Amino acid sequence: MQLKFKGLVAISIFTLIALIGIQGYLIYNTYELKKKTYTIDARNAIAKVYNTKELDSIMWLYRTDFLENLRAYEKGELKEKDLLLNLREKTIEINPGFLQLFNQGLAKEKENYNVKIKKVLTSVTLTDSLGNKKEIYNPEDNDTIILLGENFAQNDGLLINNSTWQDDQSPIKLNFQSSIFMNISDWDAIMLEELSGLLILSSLLFLFVVSLLYYSIQNLMKQKRLAEIKTDFINNITHELKTPLSTLSLATKTLTSEHAKGNTEIVDGAVQVIDRQNTRLQKLIDQVLQSSLGYQQIQLSKESFNGSIFMNELLDDYMLTIPASEITLNRNIESTGIPLEADKFYLSTAIINILNNAIKYGGTELSVHYGIDKEDSSHFIRIKDNGIGISPKYQRFIFEKFYRISEKDTHNYKGLGLGLYYTKQIIAAHGGGISVASDANKGSIFTIKIPLV
Q1: CATH assignment, 197-291
Q2: By CB neighbour count within 10 A (0-12 exposed, 13-18 middle, 19+ buried), where does 427 fall?
Q3: Which has the least CB within 10 A, 78, 316, 336, 403?
Q4: Could you give the CA distance from residue 149 to residue 186 in angstroms, rounded to a whole number?
Q5: What is the pTM of this model?
Q6: CB atoms near residue 281 (< 10 Å)
Q7: Tens of pLDDT along 143-155?
């Protein structure tokens, strides 16, 4: 059963992880698709704006200027470095007008694209009449020349176009190459907005699945624990009933035997045994029936009495029922002067249940403290023992019906798992509360609190 339960939990967790992986993969694919779609739409918008006559006329300004400088270079009036220097100065001069027209055109598109572009020079090659080629510009050997647009890191840009401008009209042929890069600002924010609906839906679905799995596992654990408790109770009650029934069977056989005829001593002994075992059976049945009551069903007969006298009398009577040589009882009973209003019979039953538990689970030294808790405005009864204690992981279960701790060192202790449950119901019927502070092998402290009237 344990292995089956663990296997089921493991499969459920594995399935959840698989679902998370699949969902993450689908979201990632959607993200990539959205990104590609947005990129294509942005490129189309850039191309539409970039190829207008107004922007084309601005681009021809640096081309015309470069051709004029190239003619001067052919005549020996300019050096190579001046060609590039004049080109840089001319692009800086015309770039503001280009950016203004470009941004205005982009703003007219139906989508509000927050996009930057830059056109950079990638190569300038001159070929003379003899076919000798000379590269006068290479971005690896020179500073980058931005022809148009805004400057941004090359790694943040996406290449969207390579273009070549050639001029064969003069003795020196020109091969002028450039590239256009696109940069989308706030890319993550844009994609988050695009996918916000999907992310919210996925998150809600994920939370629902996790909650459902958690609820199912919790219910499964609860059902498993209840099944174990019921099985344990049946085993315990069977064991408890077996002894008196066996004794009754032997006593009955004794009465019907030949030796019992005419022997009043044997008959009287057998009758006494039957009477004792009948009483024991009746007590077992009464314990089960009474302990099945909730605090709402317990009918109290409350009366006002002196709590310190009550506690001392109860402890005096209790010590008569146990071997005083084996158990040490320390008392700290305060004379509070404030009457305790409770049902003496039920309250005695609750206290004796705790004392019996303390002794049953190894307690040889008991300490009982009675007084007033001014902060809580309540009477308190604190019972401390030096028994085997209760591990913290079990403490929240010990007041449940039929619950018995299933650790190895507790299997030797008989019981039905009803004593502490019944005790809690009695205290709850009085409007009070019961708590425990304990640790394994360090004893336990049970505290009962009953409100002041």
Answers
A1: 1.10.287.130
A2: buried
A3: 316
A4: 18
A5: 0.46
A6: 17
A7: 788 899 888 887 8
